[in-house]
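Notes for week 9. Today we move from apo structures to complexes. The key idea is that a small molecule is not decoration. When we ask for a structure prediction with coenzyme A present, the ligand SMILES becomes part of the input, just like the chain. The input block below holds both the sequence and the ligand string. Read it once before you look at the output, and try to guess where the molecule might sit.
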Amino acid sequence: MEIKIRRARVEDAIKIRDLHVAAIRKTCAPDYTAEQIQAWSKDRKVERYRWAMEEGGESMFVALDQNIVVGFSSCYDDEVCSVYVHPQYVARGIGAILLQVVEDEIRGTGYDEAFLNATLTAQNFYVRYGWVNTGGLKSEERNGVGIPCMGMSKRF
Ligand SMILES: CC(C)(COP(=O)(O)OP(=O)(O)OC[C@H]1O[C@@H](n2cnc3c(N)ncnc32)[C@H](O)[C@@H]1OP(=O)(O)O)[C@@H](O)C(=O)NCCC(=O)NCCS
């Protein structure tokens, strides 16, 4: 398997959305209630992903295996907004590459510290790469339901 990384394009938006939903419903499911997973993953509009990478100004990257989108990550200013790997492709080093890419992007913009809200699922993945819990346990609301996550940061 040879993973390639490139910047996401608007035509990738459907694949990114589908991967995002699949990762929440499969990989994150053991760490959240069924109600939380449903509220978090439902009604995800493709337009939101297109907007994020165009007007929204997020830097978004995709990981490709033979032109198949197997993961994505994104950042905005000094914040890592997302790192998601397709459930069928986890534990093969793809998440590590996608995290490195957004860390490089944030550092390249001139920041010496980055922030993120980690899912309970991914918290220890970030710890593995030097991130520390600094923001405390938070709750992000999705469709009226609170989704617990951990505020983390990393100094470069
Ligand atoms: C978290 C996620 C992105 C990791 O991607 P991945 O491709 O499976 O991770 P990798 O294979 O690159 O793992 C790299 C290292 O992190 C470790 N790791 C991966 N996931 C981990 C986890 N959940 N907890 C602890 N360590 C983890 C691996 O063991 C590996 O360590 P090693 O090099 O010592 O063997 C992926 O599991 C995922 O998409 N999760 C669901 C979505 C999510 O919660 N994203 C975070 C949003 S904030």
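The pocket of coenzyme A is lined by residues 23, 27-28, 82-85, 90-96, 118-119, 121-122, 124-125, 128 (CB under 6 Å).
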